[in-house]
Amino acid sequence: MHDTASMVAWSESPFIGVSFGYRIGALGFLPSSLSKKEDVLNLGLRDQVHLLEWVQENIAKFGGDPGNVTLFGLSAGAHSIGHHLLNYKENAPSLFHRVIMESGSPTSRAVRPYNAKIHEQQFQDFIHEVGCPAGLPEDEIFPFLRTLPSSTVTKAQTAVFDKYNPSLRWAFQPVIDDDIIYRKPLDAWNSKLWNKVPIMTGFTTNEGSMYVDKKMSDPSQFRQFWNNLLPELSFSDLDTIDRLYPDPSVDPASPYIEDREGHGLGSQYKRIEAAYAHYAYVAPVRQTAEFASSQGMPVYLYHWALPRTVVNRANHGDNMYYESYNKGITGISESQKELSGTLHAYLTSFITQGSPNAIKGRYSQRPEWQAFEHNDRSVMTFGEGNNELIGGSTAPAANFVKDEWAREQTEFWWSKVPISQLA
């Protein structure tokens, strides 16, 4: 999906791109008390650490610099990077020197203890789905699991994953393991003990569009969604959510009135999509910017706003297609080429030099991207007002502006992070 080869090839300053696979699903994240005894917690994160250690030991042989390593990840990759960022070990050697976290952060998902009630239940559901014999002695369960074909594991993990939708209850997620994640992410930020490196991070306008029910039409469904996702929300909290996201069925001034005809969209879709985007992605990303910048690290915050399709608009991960400056994007139009080239220039400059402004190159006239500051919150927007792909007009590729979009909504969700972490 990510055209890393194109991104490397077009960079004004050379760098080596290293991609790899790590274990996901039940193979990478199967938490339980038994998993702890078997020493198999957070195997996916351990795989990532091994890769970083490999880079330190070997990248010089390929012409790379082990003292100039940038971690780069989107969504779950960004969540993972967040956990490595917060995994502070005194006097431990540095495995990376800056990070790019796209649409993700260590507080984007619930991070519970490995033996939380929900994880123990998901573990039991999983071993039932794979056909683990009832009454099998505890010390024989993992040996049994290791005999299974991958197709059985995949089918079972899909069933369990689907059972625990939506995202706060997703199975097969990183957990507090007393090792890589040895404390809650909020506790880690507040401790001020984390791997302090420069950060580039950001979000898209419509992060929620691929995750929520596009046919939602009843206002009661909207409220029930949040009650299911966060049962600890009070009635007052739910009323606040209703105020922050005015119901289009009763408020003619609501910004969430659905006006896209012919796509089968429910009257509550625009509303739930916005609220989920703010909760699951925008608020956590801004949280990273606030914590890191207030503790002395440069943070470069972005907002990807280009709508690629009528229904999903500026969808989760859309910027991925533009940052690599590949011909599938640059060949669309001059406007799309400029947007892609501008984003690519910022990212590759940050990757190689630690600043998005250091290397001017082909897009030397791009706006200066200043570091985020708590007392002067600003953000680089990409594609704002450019509706070319959905039948509208073009607009400048990038603008550096005050970060005020959906501010009240995301500050509310930020205040609810602690209840997201309850075991």
Question: Which key terms come to mind for this protein?
Answer:
single chain; 423 residues; alpha/beta; six-stranded mixed sheet; 6 strands; globular
Q: Terminal Cα separation, in Å?
A: 35 Å
Helix content: 40-55%
Q: Largest sheet, order of strands side by side?
A: 1-2-3-4-5-6
Supply Rg: 22 Å
Number of strands: 6
Number of helices: 17
SSE order, as H and E?
A: HHHHEHEHHHHEHHHEHHHEEHH
Largest sheet: 6 strands, mixed
| Rounded average pLDDT | 96
What is the 3D shape? globular
Question: Beta-strand percentage?
Answer: 5-15%
Organism: Penicillium daleae
Enzyme class: hydrolase
InterPro entries: AB_hydrolase_fold, CarbesteraseB, Carboxylesterase_B_AS, Type-B_Carboxylest/Lipase
Family: Belongs to the type-B carboxylesterase/lipase family.
Give a verbal description of the structure.
The chain is an alpha/beta fold and 423 residues long. The chain has 17 helices and 6 strands. Helix 5 links the parallel strand 1 and strand 2 (98-102). This is Carboxylic ester hydrolase. GO terms for molecular function: hydrolase activity. Keywords: Hydrolase. Residues 16-387 form the Carboxylesterase type B domain.
